[in-house]
């Protein structure tokens, strides 16, 4: 696939890219884009946008999503993020902004493009990096999870002092990969309207993240 990915990630994931399982995944994904033109999201050159926006050495926070938004024009390669002109915000993203407002006292932003977070060291990774239009979870099990699990393992092993934020049971399952002596793990229910009132609102993950980063002498995130 002709994708952009920062050189630091190319070096860290070199062995993963060379695995037979990843080569088979690439072929599956290529065929899906050919079979369903303009119906697989994000655009092919944005599949690895999270890796391009936040180089490996700059990662201080990881937020793990499930899969891209299945609505045309929304997904652009960073979990929970949408293109700048998308209105209204997806409900989960709006709930995230509401929690930030309550937690940190900041206003709900004008747009939902979270590249501004990525540039501050927030790695916005989905477990599954592609999806078919109108079909959430449609690319579950085709091989992305093997790859993204390894990404999380590499971050856990090779870095220290990362805040891992896992929302919802699928994401929380990945917490088993994390050495909690080296990193901070924050978990809650998913910010979707179906569950947000059962513990996402009031979780204060954004202020807790900044408190941890401050303790390590790192820059706080401007949420």
What do you see in this structure?
With 223 residues, the protein is α/β, with parallel strands linked by helices. Helices cover 36% and strands 11% of the residues. It contains 9 helices and 6 strands. The longest helix has 16 residues, at 20-35. The protein starts with 6 loop residues before the first helix and ends in an 8-residue tail after the last helix. 36% of the residues are buried. The mean pLDDT is 96.
Describe this protein with a few key phrases:
9 helices; alpha/beta; two-stranded antiparallel ribbon; four-stranded parallel β-sheet
Mean pLDDT: 96
- Principal-axes geometry comes out as globular
**Termini separation:** 33 Å
* Strand order in the sheet with the most strands: 3-2-5-6
* Structural class assignment: alpha/beta
Query: How much strand content do the residues show?
Result: 5-15%
Helix tally? 9
What share of residues is helical? Answer: 25-40%
Total DSSP E strands: 6
Radius of gyration: 17 Å
Low-confidence stretches: none
Run of helices and strands: HHHEHEHHEEHEHEH
Largest sheet: 4 strands, parallel
Structure in a nutshell:
This protein has helices at 7-12, 14-18, 20-35, 49-53, 91-104, 115-118, 144-158, 169-172, 205-215, and strands at residues 40-41, 61-65, 122-126, 131-132, 163-167, 184-188. It is α/β, with parallel strands linked by helices.
Topology, please?
Elements: H1 7-12, H2 14-18, H3 20-35, E1 40-41, H4 49-53, E2 61-65, H5 91-104, H6 115-118, E3 122-126, E4 131-132, H7 144-158, E5 163-167, H8 169-172, E6 184-188, H9 205-215
Parallel strand pairs: 2-3, 2-5, 5-6
Antiparallel strand pairs: 1-4
